[in-house]
Amino acid sequence: MDDKVNPMADSVEPTPAPAHGRRAPAPGQRRRDAERTRRALLDAALAEFSAKGLAGARVSAIAARAGVNKQLISYYFGGKQGLYRALAERWLEHEAELNRDELSLGDVVAGYIADSVAQRDVHKVLLRECLDDAPAAEPVVADRDEVAGLRRRQEAGEIAADLDPALLLLALQGMASVGIVFPGDVRAVTGLDPALPEFAERYGALVRRIVAALAPAAG
């Protein structure tokens, strides 16, 4: 065997045993071990990206958090960028649940606020990406889809016709991100911890009332 690094060497996946009685793992077991390894790497990457951003995160630190050989990052994800894309895809799947058309707009925004408490690391990663203000490597369609969603709500009478849906989206994003962007101000002004559900409940209730006022005036 040559001296190249074996990407599976420190994996949590069992490797076939030499011929002294131990059986190789069954395909189902290998699959479960691979899934555990991928989850461990994704969770570790989330913590690392949250703390240091994409540019500052190191694959060695991610691997150390996950307790695996760093070569597994390339093996499963093709490198650090692939890990980041996998996290972004996981977020987009989750976001689709937060932004369902059948929810009122106030409930959608309050849902993002609650999610920023439940998944602070995810929202910190999103914020870091915004602060980096780097050109996207791939076309960004999510925000355009959200503008289209607000336009549909406007046509349905949930939002006043004279409000610009694109500018409104920015305002709502700012409202939803307060607990991540201004945690010190939240504590100083309200006495609430922005990382606890009480903040999400009380602030979310206020935001629902504000968003409800965006509807056309009755009569």
Explain the layout of strands and helices.
Layout: H1 27-56, H2 59-66, H3 71-77, H4 80-98, H5 105-118, H6 120-132, H7 142-155, H8 165-176, H9 178-181, H10 183-190, H11 197-212
Quick overview:
The protein has helices at residues 27-56, 59-66, 71-77, 80-98, 105-118, 120-132, 142-155, 165-176, 178-181, 183-190, 197-212. By secondary structure, it is an all-alpha fold.
Descriptive report:
There is one protein chain. The protein has helices at 27-56, 59-66, 71-77, 80-98, 105-118, 120-132, 142-155, 165-176, 178-181, 183-190, 197-212. It is mainly α and 219 residues long.
Search tags:
single chain; about 220 residues; mainly alpha; disordered N terminus
Number of helices: 11
Write the H/E string, N to C.
HHHHHHHHHHH
Structural class: mainly alpha
Major sheet characteristics: none
Oligomer: single chain
Q: Quick one: overall form?
A: elongated
- Mean pLDDT, all residues: 85
Strand percentage lies at under 5%
| Span between termini | 82 Å
Poorly predicted spans: 1-21, 136-141
Task: Report helical residue fraction.
Answer: 55-70%
Rg from C-alpha positions? 22 Å
Compute the number of strand runs: 0
